[in-house]
Amino acid sequence: MTTKQAVNNFLKNKSIAVVGVSRDKKKFGYAAYKGLKDKEYDVFPVNPNVDVIDSEKCYANLTSIKKKPDGVLLVVPPKQSEAVVREAADLGIESVWFQQGSSSDEAIKFCEEKGMSVVSGECIFMFAEPVDSIHKFHRWIWKIFGKLPA
What we know:
It is a single chain. The protein is of the alpha/beta class. The chain has a single domain (4-144), classed as Rossmann fold, CATH 3.40.50. The chain contains five helices and seven strands. Helix 3 (78-91) packs parallel to helix 4 (105-113). The longest helix has 14 residues, at 78-91. The relative contact order is 0.18.
């Protein structure tokens, strides 16, 4: 279960690799990349099928990023997440956020066994400040119903 401490730890990261960034501006992978950049994070787009996103180099994998990111946001299918967290652990990355729909029990268990800080089942836009109106409203609803990480 995700804790408030894990959320806060992730958001303290200055540089974040977004694995699963998309060229399609309507997809969440692109929205996450752009949203974190707009919130002034140093963001590394990762997608092996894309060379450039918004005039910025897109990386094939975490290993190809010259400066090790502090954290990894996963926006890929669960099976892909399992390989990515192994790569992250090999690189010494200790902070992972599984965007909703990207986690698997195996990937989470691996992270926990490696002592990595894990956020799973939460939308990063509900927590990364400043939170916009729709996500702020969603967070407020979750707070009322006791669904926010404690």
